[in-house]
């Protein structure tokens, strides 16, 4: 543990980076995947289980937590770490993405965003300063600037307006955050799918000398090749000695290709959301456990995994649970998926350390392509 927030870049292999974030609540091995704990829970999981999968850090959602149980209540109860029994790093997003997605329920101007709660219709105002205040009340270790995330496709003019607004908000968030020993505030690069706007945003944020940088506004409906192209344009403009976080991404394939381009941190609801809907990610590609072919298949999802959900339960049982809408089905598949994601990240880190990331990536993709259609 470190009393201050530090990032050490240990090794590079092509564009891939092996590193470690050190802070008072513990170390974050990078490349890292952060399970999403939207309202103080990683859905269908005990946090002890989440830790056992290999997660060093989880994500909490400012928008949802400010509505219930409210940031002020969380602070009175000792902060988010104490409330949810997770004594390791927590990153909170700014709430901007959720607020922007409310469309007709929000009004945006230079001061911030006024919006109506999806819970009870009450009116709230989120300014850059209020976002940082809420994240401080929650007690998170890494806090994100408030930004305006524009859904793609959008006009260059609209993308530029939102990007410039986000830069002004980043400056205000930096002032509001101040100096918090052992904690960090990250800026968020915006610019949609317009290369010159991405470059301008990255350069301006780099000039603010923040402790870390995120790439936002991607994986919002654009093709994967657009996302990857924006990373190739953006990342060279960011400081090499600071961590780089790709927000809301993604599939295992997205993660591999983004690591290859220099991303250090990821978060996504996909492993748990997919698990609750009967979809498993495995070394042999995706498995839809609802399919009839699993009804009498007594093989586990992965007999080589250290995760009990992957190793000890048959596909036939998982198929039955999911088809019967039993909660245990979603719990076991979420556990399996999070374990697979963390095993993938560990494999990535080891491959970079050994200078064989390109081979690891090719082998992993080949196994996915081979598929899971073995005889029962």
TrEMBL record:
Catalyzes the base-exchange of a guanine (G) residue with the queuine precursor 7-aminomethyl-7-deazaguanine (PreQ1) at position 34 (anticodon wobble position) in tRNAs with GU(N) anticodons (tRNA-Asp, -Asn, -His and -Tyr). Catalysis occurs through a double-displacement mechanism. The nucleophile active site attacks the C1' of nucleotide 34 to detach the guanine base from the RNA, forming a covalent enzyme-RNA intermediate. The proton acceptor active site deprotonates the incoming PreQ1, allowing a nucleophilic attack on the C1' of the ribose to form the product. It comes from Rhizobium paranaense. This is Queuine tRNA-ribosyltransferase. It holds the Pfam family TGT. GO terms for biological process: tRNA queuosine(34) biosynthetic process. Pathway: tRNA modification; tRNA-queuosine biosynthesis. Residues 248-254, 272-276 are annotated as: RNA binding. Keywords: Glycosyltransferase, Queuosine biosynthesis, Transferase, tRNA processing. Residues 15-369 form the tRNA-guanine(15) transglycosylase-like domain. Homodimer. Within each dimer, one monomer is responsible for RNA recognition and catalysis, while the other monomer binds to the replacement base PreQ1. The active site is at 93 (proton acceptor), 267 (nucleophile). It catalyses: 7-aminomethyl-7-carbaguanine + guanosine(34) in tRNA = 7-aminomethyl-7-carbaguanosine(34) in tRNA + guanine. GO terms for cellular component: cytosol. It comes from the Bacteria. Substrate binds at residues 93-97, 147, 190, 217. HAMAP family: Q_tRNA_Tgt (MF_00168). Belongs to the queuine tRNA-ribosyltransferase family. The keyword Translocase does not apply. Its EC number is 2.4.2.29. GO terms for molecular function: tRNA-guanosine(34) queuine transglycosylase activity. NCBIfam families: Q_tRNA_tgt, tgt_general.
């Amino acid at each position: 543990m470190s009393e201050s927030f530090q990032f050490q870049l240990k090794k590079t292999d092509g564009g891939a980076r092996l590193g470690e974030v050190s802070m008072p609540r513990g170390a974050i091995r990078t490349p890292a995947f952060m399970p999403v704990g939207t309202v103080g829970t990683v859905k269908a999981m005990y946090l002890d289980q989440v830790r056992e999968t290999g997660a060093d850090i989880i994500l909490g959602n400012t928008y949802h937590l400010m509505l219930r149980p409210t940031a002020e209540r969380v602070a009175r109860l000792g902060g988010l770490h104490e409330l949810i029994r997770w004594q390791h790093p927590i990153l909170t997003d700014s709430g901007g993405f959720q607020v922007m997605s409310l469309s007709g329920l929000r009004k945006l101007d230079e001061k911030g965003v006024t919006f109506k709660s999806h819970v009870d219709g009450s009116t709230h105002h989120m300014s850059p300063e209020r976002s940082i205040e809420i994240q401080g009340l929650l007690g998170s270790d890494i806090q994100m600037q408030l930004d305006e995330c524009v859904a793609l496709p959008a006009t260059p003019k609209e993308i530029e307006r939102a990007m410039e607004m986000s830069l002004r908000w980043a400056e205000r968030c930096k002032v509001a955050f101040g100096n918090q020993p052992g904690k960090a505030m990250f800026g968020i690069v915006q610019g949609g799918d317009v290369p010159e706007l991405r470059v301008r945003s990255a350069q301006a944020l780099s000039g603010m000398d923040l402790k870390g940088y995120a790439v936002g506004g991607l994986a919002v409906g654009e093709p994967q090749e657009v996302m990857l192209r924006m990373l190739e344009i953006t990342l060279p403009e960011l400081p090499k000695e600071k961590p780089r976080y790709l927000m809301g991404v993604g599939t295992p394939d997205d993660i591999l290709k983004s690591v290859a381009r220099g991303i250090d941190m990821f978060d996504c609801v996909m492993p748990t959301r997919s698990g609750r809907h009967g979809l498993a990610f495995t070394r042999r590609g995706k498995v839809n456990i609802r399919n009839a072919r699993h009804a009498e298949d007594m093989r586990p999802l992965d007999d080589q995994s250290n995760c009990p959900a992957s190793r000890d339960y048959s596909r036939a049982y998982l198929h039955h649970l999911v088809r019967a809408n039993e909660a245990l089905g979603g719990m076991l598949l979420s556990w399996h998926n999070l374990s697979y994601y963390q095993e993938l990240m560990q494999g990535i880190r080891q491959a970079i350390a050994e200078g064989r990331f390109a081979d690891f990536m090719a082998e992993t993709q080949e196994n996915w392509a081979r598929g899971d259609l073995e005889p029962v």
